[in-house]
Amino acid sequence: MRTPMPEDEVVWGGRREKFKNPDSKVWLERMANEGWTAPTWPKEYGGGGLTREQAKILEQEMARIGARTPLFSFGLWMFGPALIEFGNEEQKARHLPGIRSGEVWWCQGYSEPGAGSDLASLKTTAVRDGDHYVLNGQKTWTTLAQHADWGFFLCRTDPTAKKPQEGISFILVDMNTPGIEVKPIKLIDGTHEVNETWLTDVRVPVENLVGTENEGWTYAKFLLAHERSGIAGVARSKRGVERLRSIASEELVDGQPLLQSQDFARKISQLEIDLTALEFTELRTLASEAAGKGPGPESSILKVKGTEIQQRLTELTLEAVGNYGAPYGYGMENTGNDGFGVGPDHANFAAETYFNMRKTSIYGGSNEIQRNIISKMILGL
User: Fold this and answer.
1) What is residue 204's predicted lDDT score, i.e. its pLDDT?
2) Which of 225, 277, 227 lies closest to 106 in space, CA to CA?
3) Among 154, 279, 351, 378, which residue carries the largest CB count within 10 Å?
4) Which of 59, 112, 227, 298 is catalytic?
């Protein structure tokens, strides 16, 4: 009989969300005290001070033993590195401790109804009014904004700029500011993960501007490069392949383990080959960063191949569990007495994970856009 997913599977802090399991809070606090919630941040900002290579080993070892990521946070792996690189010391002192500890949750205000992959066409405005900016506009797909304490927003501060990228600024917004309305976007399974965020005459202190006015596109590209590198998820996929092999060794087809099927074994082997190639590419990227080069267009390669592998992995997992992978819950009728369907535990959420992973090739810049970046910036086409 299936058992439900643990309530503490996804962990974050912030003043709008409480820990459902006290063990999750202990795990987060211990990792934060070691600096391992932010392993590559400098120690002076509460990080672990690890090199990217050392952090890679930590990530691999945690995945190997099945340890949860101690903190799921856009502030941690997207905004934090950008603030360390481009923020002033007052901003770092104010925001980095809460990000590292998980006490403050951040959301991302980038995409708009008419500006997704073409992000530079965004229309949300920030007009200077004395010592404040006044923000007006709409953001969409704002992940978990309903829990957010703060958001990092891209806004147009110079509508007359010759190039649209030249008139954008990077502004930090307290999500409790009057004029902000977060509206849920319900997903097909009935869950609430993403939102519309409306800004109506939202007054934000000028001190919340990161870097220089109208140069936010530079900071946004830096942040997105970190996001795309993180999306690759090599360590998580390696752990997923191990789990897939375990499932295929238990599931039977005509009385024989699925893993003994030549066709299915071939699919797993091809996935492992591609994952190994991706890992070597990631290591080359880390070596480049160790030589003083920040994340560049190579992160687009990691994003494309990493998300393709993740999607294939969830497809094979769903194929392995067969009919036990039928979706359930979230408004649909359940079939088991415990309310979570029937079948072996390893079939838990196979379908839900498969469907949710469809989005990975879209967010962080669609894979089509990443291929354009690769062809232009790497291949010179």
Assistant:
1) 98
2) 227
3) 154
4) 227
333 is catalytic: no
CATH entry 3.50.50.60 includes domain 22-101: no
Tens of pLDDT along 69-123? 777 788 888 899 999 999 999 999 999 999 998 889 899 999 999 888 788 899 9
Domain regions of the chain by residue span: 22-101, 106-214, 232-378
Q: Which residues of the chain have pLDDT under 70?
A: 1-20, 189, 292-295, 327-342
Q: Which two tokens stand for residue 130?
A: 């004395």
Nearest to 71 by CA among 17, 7, 27: 27
- Overall CATH class of domain 232-378: mainly alpha
State residue 53's pLDDT score. Answer: 82
- pLDDT at site 99: 92
Task: Please name the fold of domain 106-214.
Answer: Butyryl-CoA Dehydrogenase, subunit A; domain 2 (2.40.110)
The span from the first CA to the last CA of the chain, in angstroms, equals: 55
**Beta carbons within 8 Å of 212's beta carbon, 6+ residues apart:** none
233 dihedral zone (left: phi>0; alpha: psi -120 to 50; beta): left
Q: In angstroms, rounded to a whole number, what is the distance separating the alpha carbons of residues 290 and 287?
A: 5
pLDDT, residue 64, reads 78
